[in-house]
Design goal:
Layout lengths: L2 H7 L5 H9 L5 E2 L12 H11 L4 E9 L2 E8 L5 H16 L23 H8 L12
Parallel strand pairs: 1-2
Antiparallel strand pairs: 2-3
Helix pairs in contact: 2-3, 3-4
The protein binds zinc ion.
The site of zinc ion (ZN) has 8 residues, from helix 5.
């Protein structure tokens, strides 16, 4: 088993610290109980999202993977720019649907015949040997 996969399965990737670091020196505010949780393969999606919305004074209240998609929730003070934030979050969510949660490679939509599929074909081969379903069900 690769170290990368090992990290994924043990959830040792500290997504919360990663997000906290990205939000440093931005106008974004992370709620104390935000506790960002998402797989390592999506870190560049989150990085792009933070970069896009970093100049908006918003409170991020939630970043996690929900039913195999990236879910981000926020509260905003000035509603004028809200649509820009929604667009950025929607893009991140759409990107997460076709990005391997482990290696971060783009998955072709037809490979993702199972809407809960998180891993690309290659990563799935490795994970399959471990008896995982590679979906959010593995948490339970
Ligand atoms: Zn992969």
């Amino acid at each position: 088993m690769s170290d990368l996969l090992n990290n994924f399965l043990e959830e040792s990737f500290d997504s919360d610290s990663y997000v906290k670091k990205l939000c440093e020196n931005t106008k974004l505010f992370l709620r104390l109980n935000t506790n960002a949780q998402f797989p390592i393969g999506w870190k560049y999606i989150v990085e792009e999202l933070i970069n896009t919305i970093k100049n908006y004074p918003i409170s991020i209240t939630k970043i996690n993977d929900s039913f195999s998609l990236l879910e981000v929730k926020f509260e905003i003070e000035k509603p004028t720019k809200e649509v820009c934030v929604w667009r950025a979050i929607d893009k991140a969510r759409t990107d997460s649907a076709c990005t391997c949660a482990l290696c971060g490679e783009e998955m072709r939509s037809r490979q993702r015949s199972n809407p809960f599929e998180l891993l690309c074909v290659e990563c799935k081969k490795t994970a399959g040997k471990l008896g995982k379903t590679q979906t959010w069900l593995d948490k339970y």
